[in-house]
């Protein structure tokens, strides 16, 4: 296979060189184009038929994605089908004639959500910040919804891909997607195996290849004090990995566990390299708006220090930071480090690219009945080529077209057509752009791409700079004389955001075990069990940069060239997750780099994100071209070098633990009015180093309460050790039963993590043994299927005051697993679809159950109680109907710090499709103080 001469024109450093690499557009071969390749009469006639639809759009239809419009018309107008015999819209329509859409609103409101439901829509996600409602809606109702004045546009549901790499030509290993039930059974089978036999944990080869294992041994830094969080498809097998000892507890954002297991594999990589870091997760696969929301929630709700993702949404602009990139910049501005996969879409140097960008060149060749001229890909003024041809192995590939207009403000109207060798239009995208839409068109290639080629048509407007990209294919010369045209700059979207660290891939161990396309050169191998060095080659599929942008996030002009990717890390590593052993792609590389950043922060917690990035980039091993290049950035990260550069050392992490009480008057374990109690406050050092000269200051803002002494010296506390001291706490006689005594503990010691602060709330009095009950026994409330917004039951509480204990029960008179059982507390035909939460009047929420129970039916006479011994998260379908006492996902005691009187809310959301049920009877039991 001949390589493009562009392989010798690589980006090194400096804006001038980067711009030159972007703007120099040459054919892939030195051979001259022998003949013009223009639009055939057949192609022109079919484009004219499509343009006639575009011309006839109603005002409401003009706000609907063009493929949705054509799909809807094909179902009711025979003439449309006859005029377009080969056209495939690619719109996924269910047997109930519904399709997934993103409704972009001018103003978000509950009225819009209710209107979508009234039109027969099922809500999948809502984002008030990003003014988006994601829903499964009847195809015939889309124009009605688009016709609302508060709706800006109705788009096909934004979709995405992760950046793991599988052999899509391996038809033997490709099977029909398993059903939800089959997946559940397989996970339960694997979980049972892990619980019955203990096996040695699998450690990713990157632990040695990046010298992370050696670095932990030399610097005694393990990730303590940091929280590393991932975004991907899902963590379906999380419980299996935990049972196998591959993962510790993971803080999963409520209702955002997703589906699939790439997230589980990424978490295993993070844990292998930074074994004592805390972990968190949220899915990125419920639309672009939800993804952006979850990025922020990981930082601002879960407190993640390092965040990593491996996802690209196809509608992410290469030329302007959209909602996902802006979310990345927001968490980076708050002090988080954000790592993202650079992509697996190939590069010019290795001849694997499916990317072209440049200024639109008007060919002067008219296309269609109404308007439009095609772009001329050939820079030779004496020849024209109106197509860019695809390789024969680019089937089932998303293709996107973006041009340099601001998001939501495109006055220039471009369209995208895929044509076969016979001149038939195979698929298309021709959305209307009249000043209020995104500059974006999207198609999917059919399963066979043989002989297909792409045409970019300017329907109206100015000649704009544009980008045309394949996600999983490449451009290639054809036998009938068409030449491919490629340019660098495949990486895009939030991975190219200023606040993101974009990560390319190099193999840790064995080579990728298949050719990207038949006849390709051999794939490189990695150094395992040795460490990376300067002779290492990157993966041939890793996406290249740079990324040229034209607009600021607000749409104002701002031209930049960003050096991307930033650095390189290992892929081809082992995890315990089926399908990810080995785990290839920049999806695997990004968490390896993120884990090393976690080690850096653990060994030097005061470093800023810019200083961590400086350490990674400065100490990286330079590979391929000398200096920073557009395939591997600064080079491959090595943990030992980065930790040495930052002066890492084992850090203590001493924190006050929950106090215990002994009342001096009666020996009870409770504070009481007019008495003094001995309060013991332990301090535990869970860090990597010793906490020297530790002291604790204990104060209270509670009126009339006194503490003596104010401070105590705890001495030196070694790693893993706990030391306790006592204080005298006196409560005034006027203190009411159940009133709060807040204790603020400030622990200081020698080290960068000092001081740490903790707060504890104790109550005056003894917990009552009597509970007041507040039940819902009204009409059954249907739980909407596959609807993140769920359904809520209000539970008004009065006459309690402060709560000492809480219990929550899902009731029922007679328990059974019958479908639609009327005598259970919650009937549902797949309890593993459900997420149940309880929210206090103060707005604090705990998760009671989340995606546990697999295919089991119904919850009945189940009590969530902090004194239970078994967690509901451990249930399997064999436990159905789910009865007995259970620990929830978080302690109910966390809701007792505030007054109990007011309206409590029990919410249940069914977050997976095809099963239904209802809430029938539940009870909140609240104990006060005596």
Low confidence ranges: 1-36
Oligomer: single chain
Specify Rg, calculated over alpha carbons: 30 Å
Described by the principal axes of the CA atoms, the overall outline is globular
- Note the main sheet: 7 strands, parallel
Q: What is the count of helical runs?
A: 16
What percentage of amino acids are in beta strands? 25-35%
Report the strand count: 48
* Strand line-up of the largest beta sheet: 8-9-7-10-12-24-27
Structural features:
single chain, 930 residues, alpha+beta, seven-stranded parallel beta sheet, 16 helices
Structural write-up:
The protein is an alpha+beta fold and 930 residues long. It contains 16 helices and 48 strands. Helix 12 (288-300) runs parallel beside helix 13.
